[in-house]
Every structure is written in C-alpha cells, then in structure tokens.
Amino acid sequence: MENLASDHLYSRIAEEIAERIDSGLYQPGEKLPGIRVLSDKQGVSPATAVAAYRKLEADGFIEARPRSGFFVRARRSISFAEPRQTDPRTSPRPVNGQQRALQLIEASRQPHIIPLGAAVPDPSYLPSRAVERALASAARQHRVRCSGYEFGSVPELQRQVARLMAESGSRIDPNDVVITNGCQEALLLSLKLMTKAGDVVALESPTYYGLLQAVDTLGLKALEIPTDPRQGMSMEALQLALEQWPVKVCVVMPNFANPLGSCMSDERKRALLALASRYDLALIEDDIYGSLRFSGQRPSCLKTFDTEDRVFHCSSLSKTLSPGLRVGWVVSHRHREALAYQKFLLNSASPSVTQLAAAQILESGKHERHLRVLRGELGRSVARMQAMLDRHFPAGIRVTRPEGGFVLWLELPVSVDSTELAQAALQEGISIAPGALFSTTDKYHHHIRLSCAVRWSDRVERALIRLGQLIKERC
Ligand SMILES: Cc1ncc(COP(=O)(O)O)c(C=O)c1O
To answer: Which of 9, 20, 233, 389 could form a disulfide with 393 if both were Cys (CB 3.0 to 4.6 A apart)?
Structure first.
C-alpha cells in the first residue's frame, strides 16, 4: 500500500513538472530546483523528489548533469526514423482472420494484463464521475422517456452534435444527425447503405480493424490504398485505383488515423472531395480522433468542405468521454432518412438514457473542459512512450510521430513475426496489437500498434522494457 502511495506521489510530481515544461514555464536548458528545494516545496521526502526527477529523465524531459543538478532537455529527441509511405500493392480482396481481434480485446480487459493492444483509453483519462452523475440525472429527470420506446435520435443530442461540429467548422442541420451505438455502428450503417455484397471499398493501408470487420460482415472487398504516416491516404494512388477498379465507397480517417496517426491537410481533404466528385464516389469519414490534437487548433473535418453532400461523417464519444456509453453518430443530409431507417431495422434506437446523459455533458461544457486537459495528457503519454521506446527498443525500428490520438505504429525488423510476438508477450501479461490485424495483406506481419493511453506505472515501464527484450531476441 505504502509503495503504491509513493509510486503515485512521485508520478504526480513528475507529471506536474512535465506540464510546466510542455507549457514553456520551464525552458530548455533551464536548471530545475534542487532535490531539497523540491522535496520541501512538495512536502515529500528527498527520495520521492529524486524518483520524480529520475522518472522525468527516463521520459526524456530532463537530463542529469554530474555535480550540477537536473536540467530541462533541449528537445525531447526521438532517434527513431518514421515509417515510409505504405505500399500494399494489392487488388480488391475479401477480409479474413478478423476473429483474432476479439481475443485481443478480451485480453486487454483482464486486470492482470498491461493493455497496450486495444485503442481504448484507460478510465483514468476519462471523466467517469461526470458520466455517472449525468446518467443518474438523465434517468431521474426523464423517467418516462428513458423507460419507454423513443424511436429515432434524441433531439437534445442531435443539437449538441451539430454544435460540436459547428465548433470544428462544419455547419449542419441537427436533423441530419443519426445517433448510433458508437462509431462502429455509424460506419457499418453508412457502408451498408452504399454497397451490396461483392462491391469494392477503398481504405487506408493499414486501417482500423473494426472497419475491416464491417467490410467482412457485409461481404465487401477491401482495396488498400498506400498511405503516408504523416499526410494520410495518397491521392495519387487513390486516383490510380479509381481508374482501375469499380470502387463504390472510400472510407478515410482524415484526422489522426488509427493506426498510422496521419492527418490530412485541408488541401488534401479538398483534393479527396474533388476526386470523389469526378468518380462519383461516396466518402465515409471516421473522425473519432479528430478532437484529440495534442495542442493547437482541431483539424477540420472532411465534412467541412463537402459542398456536394457526399460525406458520411461518423464519430463518437468513445475516445473522449466513455466507450461504455456507446454514443456515436453519422451525419448525412441526403441519406438521413435511409440511415435512420437502417438504424431502426438494426436495433430500433440507441438507449435514451445514454443519449440524454451525453447531451447533458456536452451542453454543460464539461466535455469541452475535459478535452482541454485530455489532449495535453495524451500528448505527454505519447511522448513518454516514444522516450521509452527510444531507450529500450532495438535501434533501426521505425516509429510514427502523431500529433494527435494516442496510438503508435511500429515497424520492426522483418525477422520479427508480430503475431508470434503478441502471443509471447501475452504469456507475460502484455497485450499488443499485431500488424496483421490492420490489413488484408501480409505486409504488416512485422509491425505492431501500441496504445499510449495507459495508466503509467512502474508495471507499465517494466512491461515496455520486457517487450523491447522480446523484440531484440527476435531480431
Ligand atoms: C478509428 C476508429 N473508428 C471507430 C472505432 C469504434 O468506436 P466506437 O467504440 O465508438 O464504436 C474505433 C475504436 O477503437 C476506432 O479506433
């Protein structure tokens, strides 16, 4: 118990100092307060103050200079190169082997497992008390609505989603919002509406495995398009694919894609819309990570530039508020009635109580305030993970440098079979996502995805050190 408490204490102090470094209060090269000063100021033992500084050092924030003290590092240097633009070189093909993803999700839910595999934020990143209170108050205030059938979407939430989108530059009619059970259902409904079995869907390579599962369920064929880890799907490659194949729909994650972390510029977003217009293509935008830029302004949605009403805009509150609420949405003016009907056929409606609770949290401004803190926290978690990889993983691997979201994509030496690595890691209580899950090709058999939104602790750090060893043993 005592250990846990002091673990927590030094982590908290380290976190506070990291925040000051990030916000520029402590400048690169600046000397930090001495151990005695820090321990007096924080009311902790000198050993705890040293532990906090050691942690910051391990995370790459500061450096110890012999006999001089601790200094803010000039730049948190990452020595790893980034992965290059992907080159799936493939034709449209059905999806196989996605059942393995379920095992991964199951594994990451077990308390003894370090969950680096699933892209689910640890509850400590989410405002669970606010969600609990909003659920209780929604149930109390709207007894009748919550216990009966309420077909269609809850209007209060439709309005809040429209407001959220207005803040990111998209003016939409609240009636165009169809509330779904998470973003996954939004993607599924949109795909279902625009395709029939055997149709070809263009997607980023690698892509989110839930999307591959939707493609699989609907009997579609996936056509993977080369994607740059910074700039997103290659428009040149997409154009070539459109010339060659009868693509019905293109699904993209323009902002902080999973797993690459790429973010398309506004220019590219416009280029994508122009291509879609030329080839009469429907676009499905998955913007679930769009509001999670670590600092600065949120990137625009594709929907913002959608003058022809081609984009199905899909998102949810799963990464910012609560995955358990299962509140997501799809926005389309032209297809709103058809989408609402599909939703009705599938499961009548999403529960009113969760929709009303979500609407309350959005309206109260709590979501926005939470986001402000969360974005910084995720940025620091990603930086911390990168620093750990830098120290403990073999040289020569490639690691992405996302500016938002919370996952990293790693290219390991080709000799590493990441599916086998994932099994070996699981035996030791560590869950990671092997590259094969993110593609219909075998191009990513030596890649892994790591989630950084874990609750940092010595256990997590030990797990990362062990993972580095397991990789080195396979190089
Ligand atoms: C890119 C992407 N889209 C959709 C989803 C599914 O989100 P939800 O839990 O809201 O259904 C996820 C969840 O991991 C995701 O990463």
So the answer is: 389
- Chain segment 347-405, per-residue pLDDT in tens: 999 999 999 999 999 999 999 999 999 998 999 899 989 989 988 999 989 999 999 99
Which residue among 188, 208, 321 has the greatest number of ligand 1 atoms within 8 angstroms of its CB, and so is best to mutate?
A: 208
Place of tokens 């040149």: 236
Ligand 1 atom closest to the Cα of residue 208 is 1
Q: pLDDT at position 3, please?
A: 40
Give the distance (Å) from ligand 1 centre to CA of residue 206: 15
Span from the CA of 66 to the centroid of ligand 1 (angstroms): 47
Q: Residue 183 Cα, ligand 1 centroid: separation in angstroms?
A: 5
Domains and CATH numbers, the chain: 2-72 (1.10.10.10), 127-367 (3.40.640.10)
**437 Cα to the center of ligand 1, angstroms:** 15
Nearest CA to ligand 1 atom 16: 258
Measured by CA distance, the residue closest to atom 14 of ligand 1 is: 119
Q: What residue owns the CA closest to ligand 1's atom 13?
A: 119
pLDDT tens across 88-146, in order? 988 999 998 777 767 767 776 788 999 999 899 999 999 999 999 999 999 999 999 99
Q: Which backbone phi and psi does 326 adopt, to 5 degrees?
A: 55, 50
Cβ 30 vs Cβ 72: under 8 Å? yes
Relative to the CA of 257, which ligand 1 atom is closest? 1
Position in ligand 1 atom list of the atom nearest CA 118: 14
